[in-house]
Amino acid sequence: MPNQTASALAAAPSAPKPATRASLPLAWLGVVPFFAFATLFLILPTLDLMIGAFQTPTGGFTLDNIARLNQPTIISAYKISIQVSLASALLGALIGFFLAHAAVSGGLPAWIRPTLTTFSGVASNFAGIPLAFAFLATLGRAGLVTILLRDLFGFNLYGAGFNLLSFWGLAITYLYFQIPLMVLILMPALDGLKKEWGEAAAILGATKAQYWRHVALPVLWPSLLGATLLLFANAFGAVATAYALTGSSLNIVPILLYAQIRGDVLHDPHLGYALALGMILITGFSNVAYIWLRTRSERWLK
């Protein structure tokens, strides 16, 4: 009898499951503005620049724009841009690392970290003409710090060889947004260092220097290198700050690109597109390397 009951239950048609509504369209609806914005203001302009680098003014195909990148002025512009970006990236990474480490595990008061994080979030996006004006008002020839150093300490900053409208002046200006960006990127990586690792190293007799050299830095190295590459790309593509601060006195790629597309003297838009293509390749490589290194570091910090 139990077997017959079981057979009957098995043979009975199961109750129909309630139809589930497709939630995919509603789930994707929230990201539609993001994709629309990225397409209109990032993907389409980038494609237009890449196509324009291989076109003549009449719309025909040519490689002459790419060949003309071999001019001494353009090669020098790329060289100076890479040097400025590398200097600001390395200094920003070094200073930002020590700031982030002090805030995360330096034993400072609890209010330091949220204050530093808030300031870093604002300062990392403070660039362009306002940043250039702020540095001119601070470290220019008649800037506040320059006058204070001269009147209070008798030190002539510009007499000692400093010039804000120079290579190191631009690199120092870039540090204003490079250091906070490094702090924001590196704090989660430092949070991922487990306290048990340090305790285990101390139990085994390792000093703090040995712990950092053999445990912490190897784990953090992908994050450090990836963040430095991101800072490099961030500085390499900056144009508004450099143009507002130095004008045409410093031959870097963003200013030369602006002169080719919008200028009255060096007006050659398609050569400007070729310059932009070179910048896209350099910054694109830096960003891809950053994403790859960040993926590697996340496997250790989980």
Automatic annotation (TrEMBL):
Where does this protein chiefly localize?
A: membrane
GO annotation terms (biological process)? transmembrane transport
Q: Which GO terms describe its cellular component?
A: plasma membrane
Q: Pinpoint the ABC transmembrane type-1 domain residues.
A: 78-292
Stretches of the chain forming a coiled coil according to its record: none
Protein family: Belongs to the binding-protein-dependent transport system permease family. CysTW subfamily.
This protein is called ABC transporter permease subunit
Originating species? Methylobrevis albus
